[in-house]
Amino acid sequence: MKITIRDVANAANVSPATVSRVINTPELVGEETKVKVQETIDKLGFSPNAIARGLSVQKTNTIGLIVPGISDFFFNELYVGIEEVARKNNMKVLLFDSQHSEYRVQEGLTFLKQHQVDGIIFTSRPITSDYDAILSRLDVPVVLALTQSYGTYPLKSFRVDDYKAAYDAVSYLISRGHQRIGMISGPTTDIIAGKTRLTGYKAALQQSSIPISDEAIEYGEFRFEDGYRAMARLLEKQSTNKLTAVFAASDEMAIGAMRCLHDKGIRVPDDISVMGFDDLRICQMSTPTLTTVAQPLKQIGEFAVSHLLKCMEDESTSIDNSIHYVSHHIVERESVRIIVPD
Amino acid sequence: MKITIRDVANAANVSPATVSRVINTPELVGEETKVKVQETIDKLGFSPNAIARGLSVQKTNTIGLIVPGISDFFFNELYVGIEEVARKNNMKVLLFDSQHSEYRVQEGLTFLKQHQVDGIIFTSRPITSDYDAILSRLDVPVVLALTQSYGTYPLKSFRVDDYKAAYDAVSYLISRGHQRIGMISGPTTDIIAGKTRLTGYKAALQQSSIPISDEAIEYGEFRFEDGYRAMARLLEKQSTNKLTAVFAASDEMAIGAMRCLHDKGIRVPDDISVMGFDDLRICQMSTPTLTTVAQPLKQIGEFAVSHLLKCMEDESTSIDNSIHYVSHHIVERESVRIIVPD
DNA sequence: CTGTTAGCGCTTTCAG
DNA sequence: CTGAAAGCGCTAACAG
Question: Which UniProt keywords apply (chains A, B) (predicted)?
């Protein structure tokens, strides 16, 4: 049932090599034979074995993608960018979900290595020196998306400037007259999406000489439920000195916070403004729609693949660990109101 | 740099076969050699080439997954189920996004065949006779998820009974006192998620002797924006005889519809009730939260893989085209109110 | 328990 | 322009 290149060769009275040529380098084959071979390929319904080819040419045309969790909403948008430029370059992508586990990340790296991927895109978790050994053994280019390297191993990364993005978000709030601004932060152990954004928040307040208070900060793991609960805690702590705005480190948490507010009968944005981070598709689905700072996820995916392809062609490209900051921007919707000073 | 099984064999003074054995069937190897080989594997950092192995054993431990679009929200939840049971059985999944294009589906099938996947899960688009040729040539088991086969090629499918689910949803609405119930349907060309659910809607109305009116039906492509626009159209047509409830063929459209209502100053559920289909995570994120009929997506994914694995072990399992209906259920949230008859 | 041999399906020199 | 032969890295009989 399984039909191979040899079968085609026999049927067409040529050698396997010739069949291979009409598939891969038809310009090297005489017109007549080309037609003849192509016909028998069609007739027999031959479809070349990509595995065998991969083994032979030592190249799989595959890029490996490690993501922290496929159920995170931002995955979809990132993937779209990655897949698109991969496909345009005849590359496929092999997906690995690390499920937010450090251990699984290691597994993923080994997995992708075993599958001879030609390059790897690593997302979301920061790379520490712990990975030096495994990375150097990998022998394929690796680029980072939405994260960066803190190890000694040089890795190019593509992401927004999370510090600046958070800073800008909070500055935006301040420009709208807000002074008592709370934050629902990611965990500070998450050095990028957690700690860095929190620092940006603090810096923006400081810049405007607004005192920073731990009372105004709560933490969550980026999910809707986390945002909901964090908001509830924030509310409890705020009995006397009420916040007029809350900045969340993810859209999901922002929407969770809005829901919490709603349940307590607090109106957004009338009583309190809410701002998110990411600009996922869900921002338009909440009521009110969510004002947020946008990360161009699709574009980041595109950049990452493009760079990877460059590295794969040209060995020398890979050895820098610069960060390519892709630009963020504020997307105004309905969840923030202007406070007029009285 | 690339280190092979032969390198390990040489370094450990054994044959490649022995190294292969300690990796795959350690029980067949003497304790001493096993230890020795394992040590040199570790020392050299050897990691077996899955491609070569695949070629040799004629099995890749991969299942191919064809989805209509990765940015559809339901993808994530389905994938979680698939990935989980795949992983537990040492299978990986190779993803292919058909991007809602018939042509890309064909490409996907060829792609997966070329990559020698051991089985295929096909989602969402109905299978017609057009696929008979390609499917029979595939030579690997195929199972359907969230769709079914209308061709002559026998294919087992796992999905909810969309007709019954829609019927139940609308009956639920009726039980809450609604009589003038509109529908935002998928396109009728989509035989499963479109036409079948619409039929369920009509049947439920009929059952309660409620007249069916085209005035009360609008169509969309399952997206938020489609729901929004469909609702707007529905509103225009309804100037005289107002609807008290709307049933949408997807959660996204339902949420879009609610947004439209919100923008027009119509309250949900006070003025009009809304019900969705799917029970995605976003249902809890809208305000009001969305009452819906749940498809157990994760479970469907699990079932599909499990069945596929069974087919792969036992050739005989595959040849039936039965439909395994997984049970749906209504999830009550806030978007439907009870109408007390006056 | 371990080594030898052949071969998975394809590509790629190297001749002709 | 085409064919023969070797080999990609691994596994699977088959001997021993």
Answer: DNA-binding, Transcription, Transcription regulation
Cβ separation A50–B114 shorter than 8 A = yes
Q: Does A50 touch chain B (CB under 8 A)?
A: yes
Q: Is B140 within 8 Å of B120 (Cβ atoms)?
A: yes
Q: Which residues of chain B does A315 touch, with a Cβ-Cβ cutoff of 8 Å?
A: none
- Number of Cβ within a 10 Å radius of residue B120: 25
| Residue among B160, B162, B161, B199 at smallest CA distance from B183 | B199
User: Please, what is the Cα angle at A50 between A45 and A55, to 5 degrees?
Assistant: 140
DSSP A160-209: --HHHHHHHHHHHHHHTT--SEEEEEPPTTSIIIIIIHHHHHHHHHHHTT
Q: In A, residues 198-217, which contact B (CB 8 Å cutoff)? A: none
B315 — pLDDT class (breaks 50, 70, 90)? low
- For helices A251-263 and A224-237, angle between their N-to-C axes, nearest 10 degrees: 50
* Angstrom distances, CA of residue B40 to CA of A106, A158, A166, B17, B148: 20, 38, 49, 15, 51
First to last CA, chain B: 82
CA distance B70 to chain A (A): 6
In chain B the domains, ranked by start, together with CATH numbers, are 5-52 (1.10.260.40), 62-160+297-325 (3.40.50.2300), 162-294 (3.40.50.2300)
Can you tell me the distance from the alpha carbon of B72 to that of A44, in angstroms, rounded to the nearest whole number? 37
> Which chain B positions have a beta carbon within 8 Å of A77's beta carbon?
71
Strand order in the sheet with B181-185: B217-219, B181-185, B245-248, B273-278, B291-294, B329-331
The token pair at B323 is 């439909």
Q: Which of B280, B269, B286 is nearest to A289 (CA)?
A: B286
The answer to whether the beta carbon of residue A34 comes closer than 7 angstroms to any atom of strand D is yes
Q: For residue A75, which of B281, B70, B287 has the smallest C-alpha distance?
A: B70
Portion of chain A with pLDDT greater than 70, in percent = 97
Task: Return d(Cα A303, Cα A72) in angstroms, integer.
Answer: 21
Q: Shortest CA–C1' contact from A6: which nucleotide?
A: C9
* CB-closest option in A79, A92, A287 to B262: A287
Nucleotides of C under 7 A from a protein CB: 1-5, 7-13
DSSP label at B167?
H
Q: What is the pLDDT of residues B151-205, one digit of tens each?
A: 788 889 999 999 999 999 999 999 999 999 999 999 999 888 999 999 999 999 9
B2 in contact with chain A, both atoms CB, cutoff 8 A: yes
3-state class (DSSP) for residue A11: helix
Please report, rounded to whole angstroms, the spatial distance between the CA atom of protein residue A111 and the C1' atom of nucleotide C3: 30
